Amino acid sequence: MTTKLSALRRDPQARLGLVFAGSVLAMALLGPAIAPQSPLALVGPTYGLPGDPGALLGYDYLGRDVLSRLLAGGRSVLWMSFAASAIALALGAVIGIAAGLSKRWIDHAVVWGTDVLLAFPDLILVLLVVSMLGREPWLIVLTVAVSFVPGVIRLARGVTLGVVSQEYVEAARLMGYPWWRVVLLEILPNIATPLLVHLGIMLTWAVGVLSGLSFLGYGVAPPAADWGLMINENRAGLMIQPWAVLAPVAMIGLFALGTNLLAESISRAGSRIGVRRGVKSRARTQMRGKKRRQRENQA
Amino acid sequence: MSVVPFVNALLQVRDLSVAIEDGPEIVGEVSFSVLPGEIVGVVGESGCGKTSIATALLGDSRAGAVISGGSVFLDGRDILALTEAERQKVRGAVISHVAQDPALALNPMRRIGSLLAEVLRVHLPDLGKPAREARIAEAAADVGLPATREFLRRFPHQLSGGQQQRVLLALAVLLRPRLIVLDEPTTALDVTTQARVLATLRDLCRTRGIGAVYVSHDLAVVRELVDRVVVLYAGHIVESGGRDQIFESPAHPYTRGLLDAVPDIAGRHAVRPIRGHAPALQDRPDGCRFAPRCALASASCAQRPGLRETGRDFGDRRLVACHHPIRDRRDDTPIASRLISAAAVQPLAVLEGVSASYGDSQVLFDVGLELPKGYCTALVGESGSGKTTFSRALVGAVEDVEGTFDYDGRRVRLSGERDIDLRRRIQYIFQNPFRALNPRQTVGQILRTAALHFFPIRSADADREVAEVLERVALAPELARRYPRDLSGGERQRVAIARALICKPELLICDEITSALDVSVQAAIIDLLRQLQRESGLTILFVTHDLGVVRAVADFVAVLQHGRIVEHGPADRLLDRPEHPYTRAPIADSPRLRATAG
C-alpha cells in the first residue's frame, strides 16, 4: 500500500487532480463562512457587471451577489454526489461480489437485471422519480445512487470473477477458511483498485447529473444557492453578465476534471502493482520517451 | 575476443550485442558460427537472452531493444548492414524463423494454403500458380504434411499442435533458405509429437544442407538434436563446443550445474540445484556473471573472464569463459532408488471407482489408486487426461464426483463439506506460483493465517511457527515481511509449500508444481520435496507430465489416459519396462540426457 501511495504522490497528474478537486471541495466547504454577502440578499443591480469592489463576479438576474452564491452553492451538489457515489459503490460492490461468487443462474439473473437497468437512461430515471415522489435531497441521492448501481455491479462482478479464478482464492477455500474471510481478505483487497477508480468516475457523473437536475428545475429549490440552479437562472442574461453562468460552470468543470485525473492516476498506480519493473516495462517506458522526443523534434 | 572464422561457415555471428535502448545490455559479445547442414543449440534459462539472439540473427529486435553492435554474416553478407528492404528479401529466402507457439504464430482467419501461397507470392512474384502449388506440395512433403486440397483449405484451429508446428516449419523451408532459426519450437507439444517434429527437422537439415540454430531451455532435446552447443548465462556465452564434450565433460561450472539440475528419464541421478537465481537485467554483476552462484568463485572472478579455447578434439573448437574451468568428466553415478519392501507399504489413502464429470463430459472413469504411506506416487498423463481433476477430487474441490475414498482407515466423502481436521491433513500445492499467493498479503500473513486457522495457538506462537517453516523450506526469515511480488518464482513456490507444511499435513498433493520454473530452480524444489519426505515421512501425490521429474521424485507411478489408469507400479519398473502401449510411446520418445541406461 505504501509503495502505491508514494507512487501516487510522485505522479504529477495525481497532484494536479488533487489540487483541482481539493480546491473546489475546500471552497464549497468553507465558502459560506467567507462569503461577503448573504447568498439570498438582493444587494445590487440586475445583471450588474463586476466592477464594484464588493462584487468580484457581479450580480445575478435578481441583483444577488454572484460570488456569495457561488461560495454557498457548492455544498449541496458536492455532498449529494459524494453520498450517491458512496452508496452506489457499497451496494453495487456487495451485489457484484455476491453474483461473482454465486451459482451460475443467480449470476445470470443479476447480469440480466443490470442490463435492463443500464438500458434505461440515468437522467430520465431520476427525473421520473423526482417528478413523481418529490425533490427531497435524500430521495435524489438515493435515486442517483440506484441509477449508478448497475454499473458498479457489472464492474465488481467482472473483477471478482477474475480474482476468484486465481489459485490463491481456491487455496483459501480448500483450507476451509470461512466465506467472509475469503471475501474480506482474499477478494476485496484485490478488487479495491478498480472500484476506487470507478468511485472517482461516478463522482464526476454525479456532479453532472445533480447539476443537470438543478438546471432542469428538479433539484434544489430556489431561492437556495446551487451551481446547477445558478446556470439555469442566469442563462437568459448570458450575453449581458456572463460571469453569473461561467463561474458555476467552471467550478463544476474543475471538480469533474480533478476527480477524473485522480481516478485515472489511481488506476495507473494500481496496475503497476504486481508488475515487476523488469525488461519489458522499462523498454516500454523508454519507447514512450523516444516517441515523445520524436514528436517534439517534429513540432 | 575475436573468433577465427570458419572458411566455409554459413552463418557467422561476431561480437553481437543487443541492448535496451539507452539501457543495460541484454546480450553481449556473442560469437558463434554455423556450418551448412549443422544444427547449433543455443541453451540457457529464461531471461538469459536466447530469444534476443534468435531475432537478432534476422536483423530484428523486440520493441524497446536495439542491436547495439557486432555483425551477423550470412553467406558472407552482413545482415545488420543491409537496409530494411534488403533485409526483408533475405528473411524467408535465405534465413527463416520458426516461432515458439504455433497457435499464436498462425493467423487464425487464414487458410493454411493461403498462408503458404502468400510467402511465395511476396518473395517470388514471377512464379505461376502451378509452380506455386508444386513448391507448396514439395515443402509439405518435406515436413510430413499432406498437400491435399482439402488439407490446404483448413484453418489453423482445425489442426493439431504438431501439425501447426509443421505448417510453421513448412513456411520456413518453403523458399529453401540456407538457415533456419528455431525459437523453442516444441515447448507447446507433447513428447511424441515433439519427437516426430524433431526427426523431421533433423532429416531436413541433413538432406538439404540447411543450417539451423535451435534455441531452447530443454537440455534433453538439445542433446538429441544438435551437433554443437552454445551455453548462455545472463547474456554472455559461458561455454561452447561439440555436443558430446559439453554433455560429458562440461568445463564451465554453470553448464555443469545446469546438467546436474536436470532430472532425466534415463536413470535416477542426484538432482543438484544451483544455489540462488539468475540475476535480473539491471543487477548483473560486473565480473563473471555466474560468480555469485558459483562454488568455485575466487577473487579473480571479479574480473570478467574472456571466452578462451580450452582444447580441441576431432576438430571441434571448445571455448569456455571461466577462470576455473573444470577439466575432469562429469561425475554421473546413478543413485539407488529407494527400496520398496512389500511389507512396509501401507496405504494411507485408497480410492476406488472414482468417476468425475464437468457438466455433460465425463473426465474420470472408474479410477482406483492406492497412495502408500510415506512414499511418493507420481500421476502421469498428457493434458486433458484428468490428472488435475483426480488430484482436486482428493481435496474435495470437484463437485460432480462418485467413488469411495478411504483415508487412514476411515471412509471420507469425496464431494461436499469436509471437517477441518481432514482439510489440514491433506494439503494441495498449485501449479502456478505466480497465482497461488494473494498479492495483497505478506508472506508472514499468508502463513500465519493458515497456522491460526488450524491450531489453537497464540499469535506469538504463530510467528514462531512461521519462522520455523520458512527455515524448513530454506527461505530467510526476513521474507515474512515481504509481499509475493518481491519474490522470484522459485521463492514463491517455496512459500506455497511452506503454507502447506505449516498445517502439518500427512498427504501432500503437488499439481505440476515445477512446470512453471526454470531447471535449476526446479531442481531445488525437487530436492526440497525429497528432503521433506525423508524427514517427516510425508506421503506425496505428484502430478506431472514430465517423465524426467517422475524418475527423480517418484517411488510409484500411475499412468492416466483419457480418465482411466492404464498402468501402475514402482517407478523404476514402469519407466524401464513399460507394459502398456500408451506408456511405452512417451517413454521411448522422451529425449534423454544420458546415453540410455539399459
Structure overview:
The complex is a heterodimer of chains A (299) and B (598). Chain A has 299 residues and is mainly α. Chain A contains twelve helices and no strands. Chain A has helices at residues 2-10, 12-34, 66-72, 74-101, 104-119, 122-133, 137-164, 167-175, 179-216, 227-234, 243-272, 279-298. The longest helix of chain A is centred in the middle third of the chain and has 38 residues, at 179-216. The model of chain A is unreliable at 273-283 (pLDDT under 50). With 598 residues, chain B is of the alpha/beta class. Helices cover 33% and strands 24% of the residues of chain B. In chain B, the strands form four sheets. Chain B has an eight-stranded mixed beta sheet, sandwiched between helices. In chain B, a hairpin with a 2-residue loop joins strand 9 (228-233) and strand 10. The longest helix of chain B is centred in the middle third of the chain and has 18 residues, at 191-208. The radius of gyration of chain B is 26 Å and the shape is globular. The two termini of chain B are 43 Å apart. The relative contact order of chain B is 0.10. The model of chain B is unreliable at 1-5 (pLDDT under 50). The chains are: A mainly alpha (299), B alpha/beta (598). The interface between A and B is medium-sized, with 27 and 37 residues.
Could you give the topology of this structure?
The complex is a heterodimer of chains A (299) and B (598).
Chain A: H1 2-10, H2 12-34, H3 66-72, H4 74-101, H5 104-119, H6 122-133, H7 137-164, H8 167-175, H9 179-216, H10 227-234, H11 243-272, H12 279-298
Chain B: E1 11-20, E2 25-34, E3 39-43, H1 50-56, E4 65-74, E5 77-78, H2 84-93, E6 95-98, H3 102-105, H4 112-123, H5 129-142, H6 149-152, H7 161-173, E7 179-183, H8 191-208, E8 211-216, H9 219-225, E9 228-233, E10 236-242, H10 243-248, H11 253-261, E11 308-313, E12 316-320, E13 347-358, E14 361-372, E15 376-380, H12 387-394, E16 401-407, E17 410-412, H13 420-425, E18 426-429, H14 443-454, H15 459-472, H16 489-501, E19 507-511, H17 519-536, E20 539-544, H18 547-553, E21 556-561, E22 564-570, H19 571-576, H20 581-589
Parallel strand pairs in B: 3-8, 3-9, 6-7, 7-8, 15-20, 15-21, 18-19, 19-20
Antiparallel strand pairs in B: 1-2, 1-4, 4-5, 9-10, 10-12, 11-12, 13-14, 13-16, 16-17, 21-22
Helix pairs in contact in B: 5-7, 7-8, 14-15, 14-16, 15-16, 16-17
